[in-house]
Here is the input.
Amino acid sequence: MKSAVRVLSMLLLLLITATGLSAQVFRIGSSAPENSPWGRTLNRLAAEWQQITDGRVRVQIFHNSIAGDEADMVRKMRIGQLQAVAMTATGLSSFSDGILTLSMPLLIRDQDEYDYVFEQVRDRLEAGINAHGLHVLSWSTAGWLHFFSREPMRAPEELRRVRLAASPEEMKLVRAYQLMGFQPIPVPYTERLAALASGMVNAYLTVPILAAGFQWFAATPHMLDVPVGPAPGAIVMSERAFRQLPRDVRDEMVAVARRVAAGLDRDILELEANAIETMSEHGLEIINLNERELDVWLAEFSASYDVTLGLVFDERLYERIKELLRAYRAGR
Here is the structure.
């Protein structure tokens, strides 16, 4: 009798263990720190996915580029070591030139314009990414790109005299800088602070949240108050992994991904304003341009479209965005 009870207990233990092991593990890579808005959003996604699947899905988040840079993470997603990656426009641009086109300098000029244009071109962007065997779970933004510099700048010719840091992953952006007559220097994000301190570079284009979070602004205490363009991003999953999501709750899981991303978008502009305020309290000078100075920047970047379209940016999508903006601005 005791022997039978012992065998039954062992079988029950094996059944419980097997049930625990049967959970599908989905690994998501990200370059953002865990304590950043994007890191917290991914952690929330992981918790909600586990909850709505009753533990059938477990999500592991690899924050802060632990799984490598975006190119490394995409390679790992291709071979199944990762199932999804939270990507910036830099990584997404390897699948679609249209992503960078959204961020063309001073093409889209405020959040309302971006929201309107994005909804009109979203399907087109996703189709380009899907063609690479990937599935977009959700879109988000990282805020608005600004120039930060060691010395104050008010005109494009001053920007041409400085050395602009650019990630080695952003070679299309590096090419755009070169075509515009600027001096880009490839520097990984992890080495940017040291490069700024040594004088290897003395300016860069980024969103204020990152300039504050990585403390880059301490070496570049001047920010041009010109939103150069939006910084879109997305959580992208391999099509193979997407098909492995439990079918009975797959739509709900996608809805969760979109909801938490939408919540992040609502918070980003406030977080960006807070970041700028905090940096200002610690020595950042905001360079405000008058109307004449702003017109110079607009003319400069508009002229650059002729040399970058077709080489860096998607010409057909640019024409579509320009058409949408013309209609939207006329209706304001």
